[in-house]
Amino acid sequence: MKKKWIYFTGVAGVAVLLCTGTKKPHVEKKMQRTVQIGVAVYDEKDAYISHICEYLDKEVYELENQHPEIRIQMEYADAGGSQREQNKQISRFVSLGYDLLLVNIVDRTNAAVLIDQADEAGIPVVFFNREPVREDIMRRPEVYYEGSDARQSALLQAEIIADAFAQKDSSLDKNKDGILEFAMLEGEFNHQDTLIRSEWVIKGIEQQGIQTKKVVSSSANWERGQADVLVSQWLKEYPDQMELIICNNDDMAIGASKALQNARVTDIQVVGIDGVHEAEELVEEGRMLGTVLCDTRLHAKALVDFIEALAVNETGCKEMNLKDERYYMIPLRKIVKSSMTKDGGK
Predict the structure, then answer these.
(1) How many CB atoms lie within 10 A of CB 318?
(2) pLDDT for the residue numbered 7
(3) Among 15, 78, 112, 253, which residue carries the largest CB count within 10 Å?
(4) Which residues contact 19 (CB under 8 A, 6 or more apart)?
């Protein structure tokens, strides 16, 4: 497998992995068919996206070993949060005649432009992690989405919170008024997952009979650095008012946890979504209440299933049991401290 990053700030390189072992002259003399995969990510610095890419490399390497007649060339493009940059990267992939595009789109409202461009060139597109609107997914054949149900992730996050609130002498009700007083760190403004997660986590909590009161909320754009700054500010502006910080993703939860630790505040809980390794460690240490695992390994495996179906075997996705023939949804589960019950999320 050949992998290359392009448009990655400060980095430009090619890593070539060569399989060694027993020499097979007959196989080596055969002409290999090269499959070119373009992977466009919204921001490689995002921990969750970075983990998906790491596992994707491993899964593609295994797929290549299963198909010695195929040489898979993976090229990654980091948009650094810029849709304009990503448009250029996609145009380059299309002009080079790539066999498949995997797109973690910056701005979901821009999907139609990319879809039409790829369709004209006859290139299938799989969007992942950041979901375009359904109308765009359905506008052309061979357009797919791989990801998780944002509503379900929010409801599982709500279950984590409700279970903790129900505990005797719960720290989530430190003033014993029977009301959950929370702050919320949200993702990008008007991003679909931001809107759904923010709405449904509160609905889920209140459906458990828990009264809530929002102290403050703001967008930290999925980023831990911004979350750190916001929470540090909130601790000064709203002393003793917050009992919980609800975060739309783990990067922001990690940033919030860091701000609390730096301020030596131990009576405010933090909960996230994604299940990245660092967040799981904070859960075990008791510095995070919990998170919802959106397994990056499963995301990578799903993307490789698309690669095999659309670019290697070229048989189509009928055997993948997709929802509405376009959607591959990853199962979710709650992650809480090991002393508590871990749930499968069903």
Answers:
(1) 9
(2) 43
(3) 253
(4) 65
Tell me how far apart the alpha carbons of residues 69 and 64 are, in angstroms, rounded to a whole number.
8
> In the block, which residue shows the tokens 């052309």?
140
Three-state DSSP string of the chain = CEEEEEEECCEEEEEECCCCCCCCHHHHHCCCEEEEEEEEECCCCCHHHHHHHHHHHHHHHHHHHHCCCEEEEEEEEECCCCHHHHHHHHHHHHHCCCCEEEECCCCHHHHHHHHHHHHHCCCCEEEECCCCCHHHHCCCCCEEEEECCHHHHHHHHHHHHHHHHCCCCCHHHCCCCCEEEEEEEECCCCCHHHHHHHHHHHHHHHHCCCEEEEEEEEECCCCHHHHHHHHHHHHHHCCCCCCEEEECCHHHHHHHHHHHHHCCCCCCEEECCECCHHHHHHHHCCCCCEEEECCHHHHHHHHHHHHHHHHHCCCCCHHHCCECCCEEECCCEEEECCCCCCCCCC
Specify the residue for token string 């002498």: 169
Output the six-digit token pair for 98: 């790539």
pLDDT band at 47 (very low <50, low <70, confident <90, very high): confident
Q: What is the mean pLDDT of residues 251-276?
A: 96
Answer yes or no: are the C-beta atoms of 289 and 250 closer than 8 Å. no
Q: Would you state the pLDDT for residue 11? A: 33
The token pair at 323 is 């929802």
Tell me which residue has tokens 């373009």: 38
Share of the chain above pLDDT 90, in %: 79
**Tens digit of each residue's pLDDT (9 = 90 or more) over 156-212:** 999 999 999 998 878 899 889 999 999 999 998 878 899 999 999 999 999 999 999
